[in-house]
Amino acid sequence: MDAVDKLGMTAAIEQAKNSYAEGGIPIGSALVYHGSAGEEPRLIATGHNERIQKASATLHGEISALENAGRLKPDVYRKSTIFTTLSPCSMCTGAILLYRIPRVVIGENVNFLGGEDLLRSHGVEVIVLGSEECKSLMAKFIREKPEEWNEDIGEETVA
Amino acid sequence: MDAVDKLGMTAAIEQAKNSYAEGGIPIGSALVYHGSAGEEPRLIATGHNERIQKASATLHGEISALENAGRLKPDVYRKSTIFTTLSPCSMCTGAILLYRIPRVVIGENVNFLGGEDLLRSHGVEVIVLGSEECKSLMAKFIREKPEEWNEDIGEETVA
Ligand SMILES: [Ca+2]
Ligand SMILES: [Ca+2]
Ligand SMILES: [Zn+2]
Ligand SMILES: [Zn+2]
Questions:
Q1: Which of A35, A91, A81 is nearest to A61 (CA)?
Q2: Which CATH class is domain B3-153?
Q3: What is stated as this protein's family in its record (chains A, B) (predicted)?
Q4: pLDDT tens digit string along B21-39?
Q5: Which single residue of A3, A65, A159, B142 has CA 20 to 30 Å from A145?
Q6: Chain B residues close to A154, C-beta within 8 Å
Q7: Contact A70/B91, CB-based, under 8 Å?
Q8: What is the ipTM of this complex?
Q9: What secondary structure letter does DSSP report for B58?
Q10: Given an 8 Å threshold on Cβ–Cβ distance, is B70 in contact with A58?
Q11: Of all helices (H) and strands (E), which one includes residue A51?
């Protein structure tokens, strides 16, 4: 893993763990400016899912990181990578496309498979790490709070 | 226009005007629960673009309305219509798909054309009203603050 990916994924996983510790959905994200070749990478912002903590319907990990980043000039996104511990849902996928973020690094896509194909069809580079740490944390949460998880992805819970 | 659409579009346009009055991007949205046939429609929440007001990169009109609605059970979205004064960008399109909102009513799509085809390809009913009021308010804003508008849709402003 290169320096950009280590910086971003470490921050995203830390956010996921923090969210879990708060009783929330353990999905974390980070936005890293990687600039042009040779530039030092810079962590712009991090975030985690806030459904439970803030009764939020839109602050998924990725949206939260983008929101915490504040207003950025369009060219900043175009030289950045977004990291997320779990495959991005259609809303977060759409946010990545809106800002034309060229690169997405995903911890795992076993517990949920989002808009990876749509991203690729728009020329976005998508990397799935297959992280065991991400998989087991998310699987634990889904076992513990299936209804909250289903609500987060718009699925009805079948009793 | 039926009762649901009148309720929703009136609220969305009011939000757009409020945002303009605050110096913000004049895009408004509303989420209306239309229930099953014969049920009284209910305005769940409204919102407007908050880029300028809250230095927000994610609170577009539709995201703002969904956020203001708070946590809802998945089946509520499935019996609701979302109204927006302007065609939804890819992020807002993705949010509509995430929550499987079955119906989207759009004020206009001349100043910006978003993910209408993607919505339709997922079976979402999309209605474009072609509102002159929505068109002229948005056009006025774009003339006055082109850079802010471009930033909102991730476009670089060419001097
Ligand atoms: Ca927190
Ligand atoms: Ca306001
Ligand atoms: Zn998401
Ligand atoms: Zn939008």
A1: A91
A2: alpha beta
A3: Belongs to the cytidine and deoxycytidylate deaminase family.
A4: 999 999 999 999 998 877 8
A5: A65
A6: 74, 77, 98-100
A7: no
A8: 0.97
A9: S
A10: no
A11: helix A51-54
